[in-house]
Write a structure and sequence with these properties.
The protein folds into two domains: about 160 residues, Rossmann fold, CATH 3.40.50.720; about 120 residues, N-(1-d-carboxylethyl)-l-norvaline Dehydrogenase, domain 2, CATH 1.10.1040. The chain is built from twelve helices and nine strands. The strands form two sheets. A six-stranded parallel sheet has the order 3-2-1-4-5-6, sandwiched between helices. It has a three-stranded mixed sheet with strand order 7-8-9. Helix 4 links the parallel strand 4 and strand 5. The radius of gyration is 20 Å and the shape is globular.
Length: about 300
């Protein structure tokens, strides 16, 4: 195939917009669609064509990239796109969709003659904007050259988990990784809340663990967002993290595993969203520790 492709990006939130920009910067022709068109309009400054419908966005595309809220939303949008889909096109499904939902999406791909890749990504806003995501991918080896330009543009590394995208091997690995991210973020928020409630300077805690096995760059980065009031724009939003936490709990339950930390984290994230923090960074679950406003210095 040629070095440049025509790609469509369906869903231009935090991640999708960054991925679309990186595809355009790599020299590819990019068309994008978002349910709320106004949120996609800034992409036109990057040479990206914003369309009114999913079907317009995918027409004649070599690769369709979906980065939407969840599995059902992705399936609905692809049904809207069906009239414009080209049989033989590759579909890179990057939504964190859940194991069962990936099976449904793969079935849709088969019905419409698409080459399906289950390809969620690891990373948040900053690595997405820098084209430094880690792509977790599953799909047929014989068609990987077709999606290589996409993975090269949006990511620094691709980890292949198998040849059957419908088996959700990449999504399974993503859920395991996200279970750690969500647990670590919840712990970061709780340790900060406890320190403040006990009138302990958080810096005293950070000094205590500095340089030892309990120290963690992620802990410091996430708590800094709270302490410095930098929760917006979100690296990974509370509402999205809550959705992912529920998918993790369900994946465990379906396979005979009780995930108490993930379940509690989902409740904390949902409580923070109800308090008005849904669009803030996921560490804003910190606020769920307080029935009223957190203590101030």
């Amino acid at each position: 195939m040629t070095d440049t492709i025509t790609a469509s990006v369906l869903g231009t939130g935090i991640m999708g917009a960054a991925m679309a920009r990186n595809l355009a910067r790599a020299g590819h022709t990019v068309r994008a669609w978002n349910r709320t068109r106004a949120k996609a309009e800034p992409l036109t400054a990057d040479g990206i064509t914003v369309t009114d419908t999913p079907a317009e966005a995918v027409r004649d595309a070599d690769v369709v990239l979906t980065m939407l809220y969840d599995g059902p939303a992705t399936l609905d949008v692809m049904r809207e796109a069906a009239a414009g889909l080209r049989p033989g096109a590759a579909w890179v499904q990057s939504t964190t969709a859940g194991i069962d939902a990936v099976g449904d999406l793969a079935a849709f791909a088969r019905e419409h003659g698409l080459v399906f890749f289950d390809a969620p990504v690891l990373g948040t806003r900053q690595p997405a904007e820098a084209g430094q995501l880690t792509v977790l991918a599953a799909g047929p080896a014989g068609h990987r050259d077709a999606v290589a330009p996409v993975f090269d543009a949006v990511g620094a590394r691709t980890v292949w988990t198998g040849e059957d995208g419908g088996a959700a091997g990449a999504t399974r690995l993503k859920l395991v990784a996200n279970s750690w991210v969500i647990a670590a973020t919840a712990a970061a928020g709780e340790v900060l809340a406890l320190a403040q409630s006990l009138d302990v300077d958080p810096e005293a805690f950070f000094g205590l663990i500095a340089g030892g096995p309990l120290d963690m760059g992620y802990l410091r980065a996430k708590t800094a967002l709270v302490l410095e009031g930098r929760l917006s724009p979100a690296q990974f939003a509370v509402t999205t993290a809550a959705k992912d936490a529920r998918l993790i709990v369900e994946a465990g339950r379906s396979n005979g595993v009780r995930l108490d930390v993930a379940a509690a984290s989902a409740e904390r994230l949902e409580r923070a969203a109800a308090q008005g923090h849904g669009d803030e960074d996921m560490v804003a679950a910190y606020f769920a520790s307080f029935e009223e406003k957190p203590p101030t210095d």
